[in-house]
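Supplementary Note 3. Input sequence used for the single-chain structure prediction.
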Amino acid sequence: MDRYARQAVFGAVGKEGQERLLGAKVTIIGMGALGTVAANNLCRAGVGHIRMADRDYVEITNLQRQILFNEEDAAQSLPKAIAAFNHLSKVNSEITLEPVIADVNPSNIEGIVSDSDLVLDANDNFEIRLLINETCDKYGIPWIYCGALGSEGMTMNILPNGEGPCLRCFLGESDSLSGPSCSTFGVLNMITMTMASIQTAEALKILIGSDSVRKELLAVDLWGSNFHSIALKKDSDCPVCVHKRYEHLGRAVGSYTTSLCGSDSVQVVPPQPRNIDFEALAERLKKTGDVRFSQHALRFSDDKYEIMLFQDGRAIIKNAIDGNNAKSVYTEYLGL
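The predicted structure, written as discrete structure tokens, is reproduced below.
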């Protein structure tokens, strides 16, 4: 326990609370600006098992705010989950760090989060957040919503078993959940670090069973120096936490594309996971462009596109115009 002595001596945690943290399992979905801070905080705090799920790889534009990564990670185009694992393994070798390179979707989210004591939202996609909301409600898992853009952020604890409103209570039946992204609107690293630190402080409270867990949504504007707590009411007719209808979790998943926030890239996900032979594919692709690969991913580029292909057949295609164009590039270049 010497490693955590300064934390355990804090009265609200104590030795018993520290032991609870060491026995806890937390899943973080998204290892970007919020997720890297959250993983760093929980690793150093001694959470015993941290699962880090992310679909993307490190780029130079990430380094402004994604604190676990460096220029070498970007040069190697390492998957973010792997880069986070590499760095945090040198911080705390006494806990379990589990990197998961995956696009979280209805077909795999239950396997990723169902054995967790707590789930942290650290992604930038409201469709995934609604999916987290439904899955955690189904399995009775607490989770913490967190988001940041510009100089502003919000976070909210969502507790199971009808203890308070869920995300669907908060959002209602909005058909459009899209909005400005960090690539067009900008984001300060100070707000992502602030919001993830608040989120992980709440995580410790939940994991040790504190009676100080915040019940309200917290909204922060660092540039305007404003902090507001907003009380939210549970929707008595909520389809998720009241009627247990899981519309997002029940969706069929086939091949699909997703535009990624903060880059001119489109992700292509095949209908079924595959096991790609990188060596054979690299041999074919080297005739038309630059190619290199590791055990985790293959990277190809020519004068038009840059493709990052993962072991399961998922690809991120830079400079694709839209989803249809990305699918065409995927088929033409990779032939998968």
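The chain has a mean pLDDT of 93. The two ends are 50 Å apart (CA to CA).
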